[in-house]
Amino acid sequence: MKKVFGIFRIRKDERWMSLVMLVLLVSLNALVILKYYGKFSVFNKDYFRLFVKTFHISGYDPVTYCVVSHWDATYNIYRHPLLAFFMYIPYQINHALMSATGINCVQFVVAVILIFCALYSFIFLYRIFKEVIELQRIDAILLSFFTFSFAYVLVASIVPDHFVMSMFMLILTLYVCGKKMKKNKPLTKWQTILFFIITAGISLNNGVKIFIANLFTNGKRFFRPLNLILAIILPSVLIWMFARYEYSVFQYPKWHARQVARAKFVKREKAKTLQLYKDTASTTDSATIAAGVKRILTAKAIDAYQKQQRDPNIAHQGKPIKKGEFWNWTDVSTSRAETFVENLFGESIVLHQDYLLSDTLTGRPVIVHYKWLINYVIEGIIVLLFVMGLWCGRRSRYMWLAASFMAFDMLLHMVIGFGINEIYIMSPHWAFVITIVMAYLFKRLGKGGLKALRITTGCLLAYLYIYNITLIVQYLI
Description:
The chain is built from 20 helices and no strands. The protein is mostly helical. It has 3 domains: 13-226, no CATH class; 239-314, no CATH class; 329-476, no CATH class. α13 crosses α15 (300-308) and α18 packs antiparallel against α19 (431-444).
């Protein structure tokens, strides 16, 4: 057990850089707490309505605040099957603090989780660069800080959503697999199962990446019957069965109650409208009355009711491929080319000034253009460095493992269209792959080219920190 948790010990050469990152993360989280403290620290009978109505930072949902304030399986169960249960201990801690202090301490409890996950994502990234890819220490530090200059890596580290937790687990997985590969050892069944349960429990689609990691790390051993049955098939079946059970116990009764209430509401509105027509119409002919009711009764009443029942899990704007639990979140109408430029390698890395940290559900257009040409130049340079890194690391199995994580997300978002209208908020699932791939360019270049690359990356890093943090602080204060 000591060996397992020893991985979290911060080493001597990591202390000063970790301290710098910790100060940054604490400062930004403090601003979020201050922004909402007046409303969120007060006890409330309906935390869900309070948090959803009040919290607005990009498209992120404050469901974690709800669950840690009053525990329930509030998350979309099929997307986050175990996340509510992972939040049960934080809920108990917050409940104890609420009893002791007389205020809701949810912001502080959740901030500790966010800071922990973000800080250790930073530390494990540094170890990937230094121990796995074997960069010089200065380059490992440079790329670690560069990753956290990306707009939505920073934003995800301060919002009460699951993305920074997912990023932490994915980076930890890559670090462990990298160490295994260097020693030519397999990812064991229990490690695969443990990583899968936690990662897929937080966000089900990311569980696939654990199986990809098993494949790249174990090679042909992946296809051994015991590995397939015990490490791949069995945990997949169990987590899906549990999700179905969880839905039937926690969410279906509420959904059914909403449907019954909606039916009663519609019936009541029809009766009111019919009576109104009867009172005002001069005719007594039933067919004429029925036709009048049909003309008078519009969707406004139903729309008003649905708005009252607003749920952050409702599918976003756009044209889905088809209806269904998963497919409602797809979109075939959004331009892939504009998404790539403005959102994928755009907003994910460099914030847009217009509609700053706004939500597509509350007025932000899917595509927003930059005011300054330099932001497109920054984006183009990063894309170029990424492509050059892919070429330099083309013979590295580890690089292709990392790249496969990003490729899976691109398939999900850019091809299928899942969440494409706000792909930037999901960038913590794949943005770190950009710098891991870039690391192979650092490793390949000679002394002169390496110096130029360090200067270029340093300039990009400085610009992104100043620009992104300025806009984030501006929004929060």
